[in-house]
Amino acid sequence: MNALRAEWIKFYSLRSTWLTLAGLVVAGLGITFLSMSAIADSYPDLTAEERLEWDPTRLSLTLFFVVQLIIGVLGVLVVTSEYATGLLRTSLTATPRRHRLLLAKVAVVAAVAVVAGQVLMFAAFFLGQNRLSAAGAPHAALGDPHVLRAIVGTGLYLAVIALLAVALGTILRATAGALAALVAIVLLVPALADIFPGWLDGLFDFWPTIGGSAVVATLPDPAYPHPWVNLAGLAAGVAVLLAGAVVLFGRRDV
Question: Is the pTM of this model over 0.85?
Answer without folding.
Answer: yes
